[in-house]
Amino acid sequence: MSPTTITDRTVLVVGIRFRPAGRIYYFDPLDHVFTTGQYVIVETARGVEAGRVVIASKKVAESDLSDPLKPVLHPASEDELRMMLSFKSKEKDALVRCHERILQHNLPMKLVEAEYTFDGSRLTFYFTADERVDFRTLVRDLAATFRTRIELRQIGARDQAKLQGGVGPCGKTLCCSSWITDFGIVSIKMAKEQGLPLNPSKISGVCGRLMCCLSYENDNYIQAKQQMPQIGTFLDTPSGPGKVVGVNVPQNSVEVMLESGATIHVPVSQNDAPNRSCGSGGCGCGVGNGGGNTSTTTKNTGCGSCSLKKNKEK
């Protein structure tokens, strides 16, 4: 039976973003041509909203779409843009008035931002809290005050940093508020892999969580370490034989402890890339492959693990 090739059907989409550095959503342009930077009115699951085109019309495979496409209703008119700017200018005042209501109701929540839809039909307040908050009374109070639909959304520390923005320890604008659209997984294992100090104040961002940039070079560190002598490997260096006790990926060098107890830094060249098994040149110990080069030469006693075994046998 011959294999059957199935061609995915392609559909025309346009990419729209509702917030700076926010997630990009695909919509059906309905045979209209839109240019990047243009504001359009679209139908969303939360109602009619205004967004900015960031990806011009293009074709994508229908299988790549997770949800059915909603349509772009029409380009935003000048009156709609003026309306949007008018409500945008009222958001700071709405934030202050909402904060006053929160104090009156004595609720354990911290306001982050207020956001109107382009036509003022909905006012959303973003807040943080240590626990779940019953804000039903507050919503009724705010609805009577602003006379529009009120929505309160509890967000996390990273989302708060993304909304408020700021400057990171590197001196640049926060990645989350400038270009990151989705938060990836960041773990303490990444800091360990890169040899960073496990001090929360050193590896945490302004949000108090692990810095997103820990994941940027993690794969490179893992790959580079696979091409370098492993900790525990015994090497012959210009200063004498010693044992690898540390690896410095940025400097492409290893820290070697000599028999005298002194430690030195030895550069590693590409020829030092370890293989995977002793006796066949597999672990980079030099057994079976002549081992080493001009900068670091592995002793013929094997790698850190096999040499230890040999010492025990002696």
Question: How would you describe this protein?
Answer:
It is a single chain. By secondary structure, this protein is of the alpha+beta class. It has four domains: 10-76, no CATH class; 87-155, GMP Synthetase, Chain A, domain 3 (2-Layer Sandwich), CATH 3.30.300; 159-216, no CATH class; 228-313, SH3 type barrels. Helix content is 25%, strand content 26%. Strand 1 and strand 2 (24-27) form a beta hairpin. It is elongated, with a radius of gyration of 29 Å.
State the helicity in percent bands: 10-25%
Number of H- or I-type helical stretches = 9
Distance between the termini: 63 Å
Question: Tell me, what's the shape?
Answer: elongated
Number of separate structural domains = 4
CATH top level of the largest domain is Mainly Beta
> Nearest-angstrom radius of gyration?
29 Å
Set down the secondary structure blueprint.
Layout: E1 10-17, E2 24-27, E3 39-44, E4 47-61, E5 72-75, H1 78-88, H2 91-105, E6 110-116, E7 122-128, H3 136-146, E8 149-154, H4 157-164, H5 175-178, H6 188-193, H7 200-203, H8 218-226, E9 234-237, E10 240-248, E11 253-258, E12 263-267, E13 297-298, H9 304-313
Parallel strand pairs: 7-8
Antiparallel strand pairs: 1-2, 1-4, 3-4, 3-5, 6-7, 9-10, 9-13, 10-11, 11-12
Helix pairs in contact: 2-3
